[in-house]
Amino acid sequence: MLIMAWDRRLIFTIGTSSTTGETDTVVWNEIHHKTEFGSNLTGHGYPDPNYLDNVMRELAAQG
After folding, report:
1. Where are the alpha helices (DSSP H) in 1-63?
2. I want to staple 45 with a disulfide (CB 3.0 to 4.6 A). Which of 7, 9, 27, 40 is the partner?
3. Which Pfam families match (predicted)?
4. pTM score > 0.70 for this model?
């Protein structure tokens, strides 16, 4: 499903970074990705028992 979202250009968009506040930059487009392994203190890491359910719901919302 993530490959299909990539092919349909749904993974990224141009917007304002929530991290840096920079405008007109490449940002995630409402489909969460895990960017950390072995820790989930930031909410961006594995293990996350709810990740597959959450990402499937986000993908469905994108069409």
Report:
1. 2-7, 51-62
2. 40
3. DTC
4. no
